[in-house]
């Protein structure tokens, strides 16, 4: 694996290798071995053109726990605000000796452009590009689901599991990344969304689609229910107006205690965060014992350690 740009590029074996490596990383953290020497001498640059809490901080924690040097770059406060291009930003980072660049960008395809344009030699990890892909989010989701729902998970996929993904599919790179990864790992995916928040061409995706959450809960024995954030900041064009109203959305698609009670007893509740509490998920559901939302965040560090380790360990440094 040279770069991690999206989940469609991952084979089943590669995905399982990342999950198994993440399990080893998680075990070191659980044994309170806070730092491994593996990436000493490597430099990881976090290049964030869009806001982030979880992804940025967990990539930084992951790189530091592997003893890499970390440079954090946020577009706000940088020369990007003076009009500097992605190319010139990349050339600058290359000159500083970046072995890997973790990029979040508002433009779909930005990570791929950085990887393929030849502006820099380092590995590129997509930390979320527009509405396109967020591969490490899907990997940490799969890791979390596997830990809860698969007995003796090492070496295994998610065969036979059924995962519901609910809400703003249209704007969701998390949904796109999850569909590819979950199906590669053998799970079945059920989408639940209003028709206005479903992408054009959904008929070609390997998913079943419902337009009300009650209907999906009734029709499927879901093992996991992943609630998506309603991304109001991306709803600027006429074609992506937020419809139905927030109240109607919560009534038809929100997860509350009553709906949660109608899921199979073993089913887990997931959310990539940040959450709109009271819109797509009630506080009662988010904070319930069935919610693994905080655990997803913790697992994100182990998964990102695994990705950086698999890309960078055993290579010469860029400097
Ligand atoms: N889930 C996720 O990507 O969260 P952040 O935007 O806070 O990184």
TrEMBL record:
It comes from the Bacteria. Pathway: Pyrimidine metabolism; UMP biosynthesis via de novo pathway; (S)-dihydroorotate from bicarbonate: step 2/3. Residues 159-311 form the Aspartate/ornithine carbamoyltransferase Asp/Orn-binding domain. InterPro entries: Asp/Orn_carbamoyltranf_P-bd, Asp/Orn_carbamoylTrfase, Asp/Orn_carbamoylTrfase_sf, Asp_carbamoyltransf, Asp_carbamoyltransf_Asp/Orn-bd. Belongs to the aspartate/ornithine carbamoyltransferase superfamily. ATCase family. This is Aspartate carbamoyltransferase. One of its GO terms (biological process) is 'de novo' UMP biosynthetic process. It holds the Pfam family OTCace_N. It catalyses: carbamoyl phosphate + L-aspartate = N-carbamoyl-L-aspartate + phosphate + H(+). GO terms for molecular function: amino acid binding; aspartate carbamoyltransferase activity. Residues 2-146 form the Aspartate/ornithine carbamoyltransferase carbamoyl-P binding domain. Keywords: Pyrimidine biosynthesis, Transferase. L-aspartate binds at residues 82, 173, 229. It comes from Demequina capsici. Catalyzes the condensation of carbamoyl phosphate and aspartate to form carbamoyl aspartate and inorganic phosphate, the committed step in the de novo pyrimidine nucleotide biosynthesis pathway. Carbamoyl phosphate binds at residues 54-55, 104, 134, 137, 273-274.
């Amino acid at each position: 694996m040279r770069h991690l740009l999206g989940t469609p590029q991952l084979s089943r074996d590669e995905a399982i290798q990342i999950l198994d490596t993440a399990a080893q990383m998680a075990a070191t953290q659980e044994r309170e071995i806070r730092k491994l020497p593996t990436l000493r001498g490597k430099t990881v640059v976090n290049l964030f053109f869009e806001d982030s809490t979880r992804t940025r901080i967990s990539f930084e924690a992951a790189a530091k726990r592997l003893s890499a040097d970390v440079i954090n770059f946020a577009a706000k406060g940088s020369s990007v605000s003076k009009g500097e291009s992605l190319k010139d930003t990349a050339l600058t980072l290359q000159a500083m000796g970046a072995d890997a660049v973790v990029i979040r960008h508002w433009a779909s395809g930005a990570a791929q452009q950085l990887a393929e344009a030849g502006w820099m030699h380092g590995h590129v990890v997509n930390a979320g590009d527009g509405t396109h892909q967020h591969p490490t989010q899907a990997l940490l989701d799969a890791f979390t689901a596997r830990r809860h729902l698969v007995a003796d998970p090492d070496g295994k996929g998610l065969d036979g599991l059924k995962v519901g993904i609910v809400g703003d599919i249209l704007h969701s790179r998390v949904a796109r990344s999850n569909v590819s990864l979950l199906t590669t790992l053998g799970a079945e995916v059920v989408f639940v969304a209003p028709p206005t928040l479903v992408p054009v061409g959904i008929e070609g995706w390997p998913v079943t689609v419902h337009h009300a959450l009650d209907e999906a809960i009734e029709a499927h024995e879901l093992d996991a229910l992943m609630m998506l954030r309603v991304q109001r900041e991306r709803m600027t064009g006429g074609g992506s107006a937020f419809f139905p109203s927030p109240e109607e959305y919560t009534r038809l698609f929100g997860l509350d205690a009553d709906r949660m009670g109608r899921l199979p007893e073993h089913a887990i509740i997931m959310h990539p965060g940040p959450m709109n509490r009271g819109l797509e998920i009630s506080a009662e559901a988010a904070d319930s014992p069935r919610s693994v939302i905080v655990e997803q965040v913790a697992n994100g560090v182990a998964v990102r350690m695994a990705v950086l380790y698999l890309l960078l360990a055993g290579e010469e440094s860029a400097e």
